[in-house]
Amino acid sequence: GELIFSFANPTINGVSASNTVRFSPFFNLQTMVHHDLSEKFGIITGFSIRNIGFIFDDPSAPGTYYKTRNYTVGLPIGIKFGNFDGRFFYAGYEIEFPFNYKQKTFVNDEKTDKFDEWFSRRVPTFYNTLFVGVGLVEGTQLKFKYYLTSWFNKGYTDSTGTQPYANFDVNVYYISLSFQILRGTHFYYKESSL
Description:
By secondary structure, this protein is mainly β. The protein contains no helices and 14 strands. The chain is elongated and about 60 Å long.
């Protein structure tokens, strides 16, 4: 599991848009495969499904803000070093493929619009990301992740022929706390005497 606190740096038509921390405790799952090359160095890879997004104010419409999110499938690769039975550090790259985009519009704190799209063209086909983290006690990890790819597809054209994201620059980043729920677990099977 992963508890994500995400932020962004949105700029719309050259004007910075304020944003609020977005907390997403659900649905974030990942499985990691660790391969130790020595007692202090190893590589990691895995698979993830993640709920990532951000909340931002519309600088051209006071009282209006938006909540956006993507569900993504990620494939990370990285290195780790340190004490693998205790505290260790890791860093790497992850490619994420968004498969469900959702957006909500609020005006004066009332929801006025909501939609979600499978494999939306509003966002890129994939995101390039970088991450660093530290493994703490009992499989708990603290991680920072930065999305190198801009959140929106600037070339997206809607049904009216306009490109709503052409002048929208935003990179998402987050801090997360994750837990390895099966770390160190051993499974034993007893053969039936039937």
